[in-house]
Amino acid sequence: MSQSTPPGSLKKFFLRLRAYLLSGILVTSPLVLTLYVAWTAVTSIDSAITSLIPDRFSFDGYFSFHIPGLGLLVAIIVFILIGWLAAGFLGSLLLRIGDNVMDRTPILRGLYSAIKQIFQAVFERDKSSFRQAVLIEYPRKGLWSIGFVTGVTKGEVQQKLNDEVVNVFVPTTPNPTSGFLLFVPRSQVQLLSMTVEQGIKMVVSAGIVTPDFSREREK
Q: Do residues 53 and 78 make contact, with C-beta atoms less than 8 angstroms apart?
């Protein structure tokens, strides 16, 4: 008599296959998506930069095949040269002239000023408060949200308030690029030991990805 496979063993076998499948997707997907986004960004920059280069200076004229990343390399070199020129007297003078022209342009001055302030806030390393994850009561008392301090509130907003307040950006899930700017009293802001990157991961994953925490980290 031939022995048939017990139903319980067959069920365990398919459950194990399902677990392996999900594990494979979980391990592979972040790597594949990261490489895809990086490849898309590089090829997009390549196509944009190479279209501006005259044919006689094009890299494709020297090679029988296209080398990805050369356009990105050209862009990096150009940015380095611009930064080097801007650090000198002539470059600073030209930048001031350009700023004055943009500030006097009725339609573009608001957009230019906003974009400039955003880039300065992101790239200037001395603004360490921009990289602080915090916990605040929002959207009402008893409910808590993760936010990121972007600086100390100044100007008219601070003058209108009695308490010292800080600028806190509360991102939305799953898109952390949109959110709300809140002016929160410093006494009501709880600092977190997690990094901004860990906080963003927690927000994007809707709380599924939670950074490890130990009381020793707060000491």
A: no
d(CA 140, CA 195): 25
- What's 128-218's CATH class? mainly beta
Q: Per DSSP, what are the bridge partners of residue 144?
A: 137
Nearest to 77 by CA among 66, 87, 65, 85: 85
CB atoms within 10 A of CB 66: 12
Q: Which residues contact 171 (CB under 8 A, 6 or more apart)?
A: 146, 147, 148, 177, 178, 179, 200, 203
Tens of pLDDT, residues 88-141: 777 778 878 888 888 888 877 788 777 777 666 656 555 444 669 999 999 999
| pTM given for the model | 0.51
Q: Which amino acid is at 164?
A: E
Please compute Rg for the chain using Cα positions.
Answer: 26
For the chain, give every domain's residue range: 128-218
Q: 169: number of CA atoms within 13 Å, CB side?
A: 17
Candidates 186, 67, 54, 198; CA nearest to 129 is: 186
